[in-house]
User: Fold these one by one.
Assistant:
Number 1:
Amino acid sequence: GQQLNQSPQSMFIQEGEDVSMNCTSSSIFNTWLWYKQDPGEGPVLLIALYKAGELTSNGRLTAQFGITRKDSFLNISASIPSDVGIYFCAGYFNNDMRFGAGTRLTVKP
Amino acid sequence: NAGVTQTPKFQVLKTGQSMTLQCAQDMNHEYMSWYRQDPGMGLRLIHYSVGAGITDQGEVPNGYNVSRSTTEDFPLRLLSAAPSQTSVYFCASSWGNEQFFGPGTRLTVL
């Protein structure tokens, strides 16, 4: 089956720093999604990408759908304490959605 | 709009017991799905449904059954629980490719 490799596994940063994380796959997807999960909650959609090469922003978050359709990245600029959580990438193809293992982000004030 | 609701929030079972995890959505979404989340593994798709009366297997379907008699409800059944099914279970419903997740059910099988 399709596997997603998400990196890094965890990040410890200072408030105000920028963050970058990415996902790669051995197979193509026709949609890439980025979610954030807070403790004890379900994942919440941050950004959805539908076309290869697409670059989309949502406030301080920017994500891109790779040209090869096998990768995507998420950037967070000027991090703040409430950015703490686990970030998941997800790829969607033919009614099947696969998730990366997540990037755990810690922001030190 | 309550969105996606799941019950119970927590459950402890003994090996061999059966139970049903409930999921309901009030957004009139056709697509619903069940995932399990284990440490370090992200979410894995168990079963999904593209509409009432239609279900299909995901990545890890063994040990689980589903049915979809209405658009709103998509219960997940464990017929004979095993310790390997200890996990957090999330139900989701979709509009297009954008999934909305419920708050999860934390299941422990002893």
Number 2:
Amino acid sequence: QKEVEQNSGPLSVPEGAIASLNCTYSDRGSQSFFWYRQYSGKSPELIMFIYSNGDKEDGRFTAQLNKASQYVSLLIRDSQPSDSATYLCAVNKGFGNEKLTFGTGTRLTIIP
Amino acid sequence: EPEVTQTPSHQVTQMGQEVILRCVPISNHLYFYWYRQILGQKVEFLVSFYNNEISEKSEIFDDQFSVERPDGSNFTLKIRSTKLEDSAMYFCASREIATNEKLFFGSGTQLSVL
């Protein structure tokens, strides 16, 4: 079983719609969870982090965490063409990010 | 916004040669990292470094790899004898001691081993 699993996509979403990205993780001891955006050929950029069960909102982005189900998701509202990128889910066993374990990423395409 | 700077952006080397990848972390950051990403694959942790010593390393970071902070600004990754499978994008990252969440990544060095 992979440590962090994501659907590789591509996920195509019309402009203005909600994009929903999902991630599951295998280690129940994971404490902190991150979503990174990576444009092709570029470095990862932190979008959101979440530590507690429930929802966390930041502008158009909402991260959702369910530790019982070992599930993390990212919702992007009012999707824009500039949101087209690969979204990486990453987890860590401790608070902070000494060693992040990444998923393979979901490629998101926003269709104008 | 401050940046993590990596040089060179591309490095081509022959198998068996030594390479040194260089990074200048953000000036007030104290935790430093190297990650790598083989083309089409996930980002993988290599090593973390704090207070002039390795704090954690992955199984990838074997005896062929070493890190050093030779002065107050640079952070380097050395691969002593490169292998074909070392070909990847290598990312340096850093974070502030007081801010755990945000890890700043550099733009990466694309290493090609021929």
Number 3:
Amino acid sequence: QAGLTQPPSVSKGLRQTATLTCTGNSNNVGDQGAAWLQQHQGHPPKLLSYRDNKRPSGISERFSASTSGNTASLTITGLQPEDEADYYCLAWDSSLSARVFGGGTKLTVL
Amino acid sequence: EVQLVESGGGLVQPGGSLRLSCAASGFTFSIYSMSWVRQAPGRGLEWVANINQDAREKYYVDSVKGRFTISRDNAKNSLYLQMNSLRAEDTAVYFCATDGFDIWGQGTMVTVSS
């Protein structure tokens, strides 16, 4: 099953802004948007944003999501060392009747 | 405390079977759709299956269709994944999660090897 496309890695400096992208198609991202999850090594994923780019309680305002057409984006402002992690997008694909993950982006904070 | 705890992982030979369990506590399990997600060593996340609140709707990733079965027991606040005809490529940490993905377990390791 085809997944969503994410850049394998992104590097940004401390306190800078990183924008991570997730490209799908009209059956997934373009239809219902995407959720974003953060995963630190050895830990389960953590939800950062969900449908309609909402943030769960407790998630910093430094994380914001948006969608334009078939591409979802996660913007992280004021990068901190603890933001260094893997980031995954996730969407429901109506043509597959399945959820699909992106391959993940490893964010390095320099 | 809101919690999901997986169990049942282990080492199994190719072609063998395992049944994973996920015990929920601290929230109303019966009103949530649930998912299983796996992560092979050093790899990304892969959604495996989900089940709606009353177990009438179940969906699977193509690679496990016909081999894995997701089920739930709302009276026991538990989610299950029956895995048959296991292959080496099924080796992964298996996580259970609410289908909104706001609650995750810590995962259980499944290793398929002879």
Number 4:
Amino acid sequence: EAGVAQSPRYKIIEKRQSVAFWCNPISGHATLYWYQQILGQGPKLLIQFQNNGVVDDSQLPKDRFSAERLKGVDSTLKIQPAKLEDSAVYLCASSLGAGWNEKLFFGSGTQLSVL
Amino acid sequence: AQSVTQLGSHVSVSEGALVLLRCNYSSSVPPYLFWYVQYPNQGLQLLLKYTSAATLVKGINGFEAEFKKSETSFHLTKPSAHMSDAAEYFCAVNPRGYGGSQGNLIFGKGTKLSVKP
């Protein structure tokens, strides 16, 4: 079974530039999550999708971050414009459903460096 | 508000020695607690979870954790460390307990485990 695919693996940009990350979840998984993991910290949930609808985006900095999952499969996370403090690993995860007993599958992440 | 504190950002043990990674939680609702492992350049993988059934939870790779309500702790242990256990370990709590999404977790800062030959 293919896992959660993320690209690019690494990205280096200058502050105020824009960047986008892509996630392809496991086939058939309705729920998709984006996390931000700053160095030395645990992951923080940014946004949760159920199919193509947003379930929770309470921790997404909406002035600069946006995410979409138009067809309920792939998802993109965008930062525009980037700030130095956005340097982090961005993790995508998926699960069959959104219940508390659903197993999460994580991608390897995209490491973003903002200079 | 719910929170998780992991004591020790770095733990080093010898191969074959006991592994003990400490986690204390704070929760206003009966907590659901998790341990995840992250190997270098990989995503997180669930080790085990506590969801109000047995207080001693067994997970993968020989790890187990015991929920102690009186101590608000959920420490992770393994009797004998193996070189392949070297990784970063995260304790997490589900802020909504039952009914919340497993993906909506509050994670601790992580403990990096090193295993010496």
